[in-house]
Amino acid sequence: MNYGTNDNRFAIQTFSLSRKFGDLIAVDGIDLSIKEGELFSLLGPNGAGKTTAIKMLCCLLRPSSGTATVMGHDINEDPMAVKQIIDVSPQETAIAEHLNARENLRLMGGIRGLAKKEVKKRSEELLEMVGLTKRAKEQVRRFSGGMKRRLSIAMALVSDPQVLFLDEPTLGLDPQSRRGIWEHIAELKGKKTIVLTTHYLEEADALADRIAIIDEGKIAALGTPQELKDSISDMQVMVVKAKNLTPDVIKSLKEIYPEVKATEDGIEIKAKELSFYEIVDYLRPRGVAIQSASPKQPTLDDVFLHLTGKELRE
Amino acid sequence: MRFWELAIRNFKEMWRDLISTGLEIGIPAGFLVIFWALGRNMGDESFLTTTMLVPGITVFGFAFLLMFSAMTLSRDKEGALLSRLFTAPLKPRDFILSYSLPYIPMVIIQIAVCFGIGALLGLELLENAGLVFLILLVMGICCVELGMILGLLFNVNQASGVGSVIITLVALLGGIWINIETIGGVFYRIGNALPFAHAIKAARAVMIGADFSSIATDFYWVLGYTLVFFALGVFLFRRKMVE
User: Are B81 and A79 inside 8 Å of each other by CB?
Assistant: First the structure.
């Protein structure tokens, strides 16, 4: 079956990929082209359709309509060929609790057909990479959440897949563990095609070559992190830290500027053009004690808010 | 032989769960001794002879194996490990084999423990032990395959509940303590439709001298159920692998 632009330079291409669950459209006609060696992030809130999309690409879910190719293999027509070249670290940690770390790695290598010698070598390398060599003989049910996540990612790498799917790899982890996992993912950049789903903006911003913002099953925007931020750079943001800000003052500011948001210790003002002095001159005569005022660079959260009208963490 | 790697994991998973393993061996052993002691208290007229009890309680032990094998599979399903394994290039029959095979050594151990204890309690050594072993081995595999089906259909709590219902069903209608033909009526018909009573009846008959031809129908009844459960397991795995 020919889907038009099946370009060999792309590791993954989706063609109007859709999935319904009853009346709910979880993924709604997604068209994506992910380059070989790219770290591509699907960014969106819970329930946006990220995991459903990944499950279809991993041949765990059948699309309701449309299809996709992974390294040229159609997920509907040749799922076994797709499974030969991918691996996945699922959202749930998904490890064998009564096995030790080394046995978990060897299990994954074994079921993907690697020779015993190769599995052994790769397992030791990966244990070293994720810092679990010293705990390699311990049953993993005694591991912390962070250690299990690190092992889960290592398990997805044993077979040295051409395409790696990381579904919310840092979900529920503390900031320190999260940064540790980011470092491991960053080490893989450029070496293989990686599809990373996340609802953490910082994660996508720090790691991804390109990001697709997904909301209600549709791609809302696509580009590099900088391109996405630049797309809303026609709006300037001023963060003002101040005391004695009354509701009346905020109300009067809203009549002047299109977006004024109260924050914990002041306000954020958004407009096409903003002047520091103009804001200060307006607030001071009204009894507001300004502590600081500075322009703010747009974040992916701003992009998401701008595109969907809601905050990513809603 | 990729499935073999998964079978080894499942074997380790089973043996490292010491409580379940202990129960799988301890329950039939304990029941056998208790019912033998009850039989002795009843005196010479007791129907609870070792020839009556040993095959029945061996099959009763398989019913626990059914529940534990179902729970192991449903635990992997709930923990998403099974979903992860489904992304590997394995076929449905690879999965059912890798989850079933590790329980066969336990089936053999249960048979050995029950007949070993039976021998200590006065069960005479059999000339046709091989045939008794074959009947019970097929029954054990049948229970494991049914466990696979329950594991795929239910979550851990449900599998435990449904497993308990089946254990009770085997206890009441399997002919473990008494010959179900003496019950009669609808209970007999239900018990006779299921494989458990056939396996126990065939094993008892062989133990008192019957040859294969006289128990062939019962044996094939059990074998038929085993093959149907295996095929159904493959079908359910195929459906679960791509939803």
Answer: no
- Burial of residue A272, with CB atoms counted within 10 A of its CB: 0-12 exposed, 13-18 middle, 19 or more buried: exposed
**Of the candidates A61, A83, A108, which has its C-beta nearest B243's C-beta?**
A61
A90, A96, A111 member nearest B83 (Cβ): A90
| Interval A238-267: pLDDT, tens | 888 888 888 888 888 888 888 888 888 888
| DSSP, residue by residue, A49-100 | SHHHHHHHHTTSS--SEEEEEETTEETTT-HHHHHHHEEEE-SS----TTSB
Q: What are the pLDDT digits (tens) for B159-170?
A: 999 999 999 888
CA A48/CA A29 separation, integer angstroms: 13
The domain A236-297: what is its CATH number? 3.30.70
Nearest CB to B17 within list A95, A98, A112: A98
Are A175 and A98 a contacting pair, CB within 8 Å? no
Task: List CB contacts (< 8 A) between B97 and chain A.
Answer: none
CATH superfamily of the domain spanning A10-229: P-loop containing nucleotide triphosphate hydrolases (3.40.50.300)
* A–B interface: beta-carbon pairs under 8 A: 76
